Amino acid sequence: MRFLPHTNQDIESMLKIAGASSLDSLFDSIPKDLKTKDGLDLPEPLSEWELDSHMEALASLNIACKNYKCFIGAGSYDHYIPAHIPYLISRSEFMTAYTPYQPEVSQGTLQGIYEFQTMITELLGMDITTASHYDCGTALAEASLIALRKNRKANKIAVSALVHPSHRQIINTYIRPTGYEIIEIPYTADGVTDLTALEKIDDIAGVAIQSPNFFGNIEDLSAFRTAADAKKIMFIVSFTEALAYGLLKNPGSFGADLVAGEGQSLGISKSFGGPGLGLLAGNKKQMRNLPGRYVGKTKDTNGKDGYVLTLATREQHIRREKASSNICSNNGLNAMTAAMYLATVGKIGIREIAQQNHDKAVYLKTSLEQAGFKPAFKTPFFNEFVVKVPDGFDQKRTALIEDKCIFAGTDLEPFYPELKQHYLFCATEKVSKDDIDQMVKEVQ
Question: What domains can you pick out in the chain, each with its CATH number?
Fold first, then answer.
């Protein structure tokens, strides 16, 4: 449809009602030094086919992971997505489903979310999970706020320095305006969170630990549960790699009060960094504290199963001042995708995939060590690890991207300045032994 501009008569009529003499006078409140002097420097207009050609040229500058071998993790993981999942999730009944405020016409969507909740609670070993959040960072920030609200005597929360750097920034963005404070727990020479440092911190409402942590190392969650009990604070577990719990003991088995994680690995593509799937789960004690919404199962007047939204603590359902959170939209399509993925692979499948991730990462680490790379830590890890790279690696890495379509690791110095020449490598089920051997050969 063509754009139909206002006529001069329309404009004059609206200006008269607004009490303005001209369109320019509507912007008199803006200081002159903030206004452009020469107008906007815009290119000449393009025809439709010229615009299509221009957009295709811009799109060709992007790099798609399917054409590259990716040894990068750091919170976003390149996993195989079964072919039927993109097909199913693109069906109109899923793709266009609206928030199910009317249960009588939203039973399919509600049941899908209910199944999602059921599978996530089983994966994480928790009693209840919400119907999803934006991503891990926002879910972790919400968990931190729950701890601070529960313990009104403390205005601080302890967060491991090995929680994903971006997620720590999100927590800070959430709580900074509220007067709360983040206390960062340092890490040890073994690449895990310093338990003794936590024991020396007082007046905190809770502690957040990521496992596997940002270095890929597995934390001793049992020890942190004990420390949290001694301080009578909430124990929050975070994660960015959901498939790790196909092999590792889940957070619930260590007595976590809250679990906040990222579900991107569950059938969701990397998509240049988003969207993600925020998972937020808790034990029964946190049922009325978790923000977001739950879907419950009940019986209708005829005795048939039915699904409804229940215990909704969002401002759209209850008074704003009583809401647990004012920004906690459900990533419904991604939650449905995760449910489809988990239903597809099942218990046995998720364990086999997790085992492949771990085994390939071990092979990659061993191969890099033989090529002269030095392991930074000896701590058990899942599918990513840290090594110190030889001199000249940066140039080889750049050449690999340009010439061989291989992404070799993530530079940790921007996140941890003390780790100069240290890179984080990751291996998932999508890389083969030949891929690993080729990458290692190229960086020697």
Answer: 65-80+347-443 (3.90.1150.10), 84-342 (3.40.640.10)
